[in-house]
Amino acid sequence: MPQLILTVSCPVRTGVVATIASVLAKAGCNIHDSSQFTDLQNDRFFMRLSLMSEQGKTRDDLDRDLRDATEGTDIVHAFHDPCEKMKVVIMVSRFGHCLNDLLYRWRIGALPIDIVAVISNHMDYQKVVVNHDLPFHCIKVTKGNKARAEAEQMRIVQEAGAELIVLARYMQVLSDEMCRKMSGRIINIHHSFLPSFKGANPYRQAFDRGVKLIGATSHYVTADLDEGPIIEQDTVRVTHAQSAGDYVSLGRDVESQVLARAIHAHIHRRVFISGDKTVVFPASPNEYASERMG
Hints:
Helix content is 33%, strand content 30%. It is an alpha/beta fold. The protein folds into two domains: 3-82, ACT domain (Alpha-Beta Plaits, 2-Layer Sandwich); 86-267, Formyl transferase, N-terminal domain (Rossmann fold), CATH 3.40.50. The strands form three sheets. A seven-stranded mixed sheet has the order 7-6-5-8-9-10-11, with helices on both faces. Helix 1 (16-26) packs across helix 2, helix 3 (97-108) crosses helix 8 (244-267) and helix 7 (202-208) crosses helix 8 (244-267). The two termini are 18 Å apart.
């Protein structure tokens, strides 16, 4: 009796929940967890169910039953097996805190993904990656070869069958074409300040201005730089007594945590894009505990 995740999205309409619940009941499914949300602003309805068939129905069986019941409607659904680990490509430049954090979580089973490649525009983390028995690809990026470099990156992604790209402090701006090809499948992390500080050393700027809160934002990548739909955010308080180096250390910690939580939500199908924002459902019961035990 394998556990499955069902995701549903459609324009707002009556009877969606009743239709789906009826199909699952007839198939002998026991719903363990259910989340739903109606986004009236964007006229979209979203639902995520965690379920198990007590009659031995397979994912294909349930998909066929639900497809037949919703034929002729604009209801979009998908069944997912949580035991099937999502294939992920990680991209990194010279800041390695997020990469190292992800590798650790992956190694202990706290982040159940299948890392199929690590791509960098520098050689700094080749040894770290290879020591984890993972493929490492160094692809230099310059103004003159950017198109060729991205083509090589996409070749690696496609040949590895990757479903998600994680920019773990990858400091190159992706082209509009690459963003479109991988729409909703590239997650980025960046610092988040009020006021906004840009440039080579934003933490130093924040320190000089006496910022009291530093934080991080993880979002889907779009052609609008750092303005894609937000998945996860967090902050940490700092005081006048802390140094610029403290700001950097605390910033690295919160960036790593926020990125990991965003990936966790994505791979468990808890994130739905609705216009320029996201709907992020809470974790299912025992979602984290079962991974630690596994």
